[in-house]
Specification:
The protein has 12 helices and 11 strands. It is an alpha/beta fold.
């Protein structure tokens, strides 16, 4: 195995200590924020590695040394708080001066305390009467990619992977994000609009936790690939079923419930940390 260490600030002393704990035989620089400890051993001392990394704000991952990014065929990711540094529905709510109420429901959902379908229904209802121009205003003024997003997507495409964004948010944003970043696939919910105002409803069946997994399976079958050839990235409980459909799942700056079920967790670096895991 290789032990991948990533962080905003990595000291040589930390690398040496982690190499000793993991019995690695070498240290290779991947980037200024990522290092590969070669021929590391995954043992009972892994708990010590986790504790060490937590204390010094480093991400770690034991990865098969033969695993290449090009071994995968599809990378799928959540949009809000994963690809984007915002929760789009919270920002829409801010335009209507109800962000605290909507954000509180969002957090309940992320922690898995209420179902996504209930959450989206309640939050969308609070947007009733808001003019549709607020959506464009949010996109123009609030939408911001998480660090490393474009680098990750660029490298994934160079390595031959298809890219997909799957969101419990709204197609107003995924359509624009898909065009801007040239995603191969995108899926999200459709806001109902009448007389240029939001009705407070979603058109059709809500794309929630199970729906996100179903969409991923559909694209997998369309591409004729296997589960093991998929990387899925998410941050909230709503992403768990989607992540379970992937050979490698990555919890990105995620809630504890998501980290518990993910193959790897990235807490300290940007999305380009995903590509640093693989050759």
């Amino acid at each position: 195995m290789n032990l991948i260490i990533q962080g905003l600030e990595i000291n040589n002393s930390d690398l040496r200590a982690l190499a000793k704990l993991s019995r690695a035989d070498g240290i290779e620089r991947i980037t200024g924020q990522a290092f590969r400890l070669t021929n590391a051993t995954y043992t009972k001392d892994t708990k010590d590695i986790a504790e060490y990394c937590a204390e010094v704000a480093l991400d770690f991952a034991f990865v098969n040394s033969n695993l290449n990014l090009s071994d995968f065929k599809l990378i799928a990711m959540d949009m809000d708080s994963t690809l984007l540094a915002i929760e789009s529905i919270d920002e829409i709510a801010d335009m209507n001066n109800i962000k605290p109420q909507v954000a509180a429901i969002t957090q309940q959902t992320m922690r898995g305390e209420i179902s996504f379908e209930e959450s989206l229904t309640r939050r969308t209802l609070l947007l009733q009467g808001l003019h549709q121009d607020a959506l464009q205003k949010v996109y123009d003024e609030r939408v911001c990619l998480n660090p490393g997003a474009e680098k990750m997507l660029q490298q994934a495409k160079i390595s031959g992977l298809k890219t997909m964004v799957i969101s419990g948010g709204f197609t107003f944003f995924t359509d624009r994000i898909q065009e801007k970043l040239e995603f191969d696939y995108a899926a999200a919910n459709v806001l109902e609009i009448a007389n240029e105002k939001l009705t407070g409803k979603v058109v059709g069946e809500i794309l929630g936790r199970q729906g996100k997994a179903q969409v991923l399976r559909q694209v997998r079958d369309k591409l004729g690939i296997q589960r093991e050839q998929i990387i899925a990235i998410g941050d909230g409980a709503n992403d768990l079923d989607m992540m379970a459909e992937a050979g490698v799942s990555i919890a990105y700056h995620a809630k504890p419930i998501v980290k518990d079920h993910a193959t790897y967790s990235i807490d300290h670096v940007g999305l380009d940390g995903v590509i640093n895991l693989f050759r």
